[in-house]
C-alpha cells in the first residue's frame, strides 16, 4: 500500500486518468448522478490517493477557498471498502490542512465524518439528487 499526495501538475497522465476513472465509476455510474465531475477545482487541488498493487483504490482532493479548506470527492473502489482506506486518506489530509475544514457530506456518512471531529452545520439538502449536509472541522 502506498499513499501519494500531489498537486494537479505533479500527477502523471496515468494517475489523472485513473483518478477520473475512479470518480466516474463511483459518483456517476454507481450513484447514478449525471453531473460534470471535471471542473477547474482539480487544477488548484491537492490530490491524495492510495495505491494497492499499482491500482488507485481510494481518493480525495483538497483545496482552499476564501473561508475554508475543503475536502471533496472522497471515494473508495467498491471491492476495497470497509478496510479503512478512506479513513487513512482523510486522517492524512486533516494533518496537512489548515482549519477550519468544510465538507459537503452525504447524509448517510454523518457518523463517519463525526468520528474525525466534523460537526454538522446545516440541514439536509439535495446535491445531485443525493441528501447532503455541510460539516465543519475546527481546531
**Mean pLDDT across every amino acid position:** 94
Strand content: 35-45%
The SSE string, one letter per element, is EHHEEEHEHEEE
Corresponding CATH architecture of one domain: 3-Layer(aba) Sandwich
Query: For the report, how would you describe the main beta sheet?
Result: 8 strands, mixed
- The parts where pLDDT drops under 50 for at least 5 residues are none
Shape, per Cα inertia axes: globular
Which CATH top level class of one domain fits? Alpha Beta
Q: C-alpha Rg, in Å?
A: 14 Å
* CATH-defined superfamily of one domain: Gcn5-related N-acetyltransferase (GNAT)
CATH topology assignment of one domain:
Aminopeptidase
Residues in helix, %: 25-40%
**Quick one: how many beta strands?**
8
Query: Could you tell me how far the N terminus lies from the C terminus, measured between alpha carbons in angstroms?
Result: 30 Å
**How large is the count of helical segments?**
4
Q: Characteristics of this structure?
A:
eight-stranded mixed β-sheet, alpha+beta, 139 residues, globular, Aminopeptidase, 8 strands, 28% helix
Write a structural description.
28% of the residues lie in helices and 36% in strands. With 139 residues, the protein is an alpha+beta fold. It has a domain of 96 residues: Aminopeptidase. Strands 1, 2, 3, 4, 5, 6, 7 and 8 form an 8-stranded mixed β-sheet that branches.
Amino acid at each position: 500500500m502506498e499513499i501519494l499526495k500531489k498537486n494537479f501538475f505533479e500527477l502523471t497522465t496515468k494517475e489523472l486518468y485513473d483518478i477520473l476513472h475512479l470518480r466516474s465509476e463511483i459518483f456517476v455510474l454507481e450513484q447514478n448522478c449525471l453531473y460534470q465531475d471535471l471542473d477547474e477545482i482539480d487544477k488548484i487541488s491537492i490530490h491524495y490517493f492510495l495505491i494497492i498493487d499499482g491500482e488507485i483504490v481510494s481518493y480525495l482532493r483538497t483545496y482552499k477557498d476564501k473561508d475554508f479548506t475543503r475536502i471533496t470527492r472522497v471515494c473508495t473502489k467498491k471491492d476495497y471498502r470497509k478496510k479503512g482506506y478512506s479513513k487513512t486518506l482523510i486522517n492524512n489530509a486533516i494533518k496537512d490542512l489548515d482549519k477550519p475544514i468544510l465538507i459537503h457530506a452525504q447524509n448517510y456518512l454523518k457518523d463517519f465524518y463525526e468520528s474525525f471531529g466534523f460537526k454538522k452545520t446545516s440541514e439536509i439538502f439535495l446535491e445531485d439528487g443525493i441528501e447532503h449536509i455541510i460539516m465543519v472541522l475546527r481546531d
